[in-house]
């Protein structure tokens, strides 16, 4: 699993971005990719990356 920091997450719209610790790239995260957790800006998270319709998506997101 990869790790990163939540850069932005809009709960009402259900999406945001995670900055990957290793590559420093922004990865899209949708509320459906969260493992029953609530994430906020600056949270440390671990996740898996899958190819989505418009690029990489974070799934199985968990707080560290």
TrEMBL record:
PROSITE patterns: CSD_1 (PS00352), CSD_2 (PS51857)
N-terminal signal peptide: none
Pfam families named among the record's database cross-references: CSD (PF00313)
GO molecular-function term, one example from the UniProt record: nucleic acid binding
Annotated localization: Cytoplasm
Transmembrane segments: none
Residue ranges of domain CSD in the record: 1-63
Record flagged with keyword Cytoplasm: yes
One GO CC term, this protein: cytosol
Keyword Transmembrane: no
Keywords: Cytoplasm
Domain of life: Bacteria
UniProt xrefs under Gene3D superfamilies: Nucleic acid-binding proteins
PANTHER family reported in the protein's UniProt record: COLD SHOCK DOMAIN CONTAINING PROTEINS (PTHR11544)
Protein name (database record): Cold-shock protein
Organism listed in the record: Rudanella paleaurantiibacter
């Amino acid at each position: 699993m990869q790790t990163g920091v939540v850069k932005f997450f809009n709960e009402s719209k259900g999406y945001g971005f995670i900055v990957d610790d290793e590559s420093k790239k922004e990865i899209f995260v949708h509320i459906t990719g969260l493992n029953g957790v609530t994430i906020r800006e600056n949270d440390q998270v671990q996740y898996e990356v899958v190819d989505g319709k418009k690029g990489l998506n974070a799934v199985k997101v968990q707080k560290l």
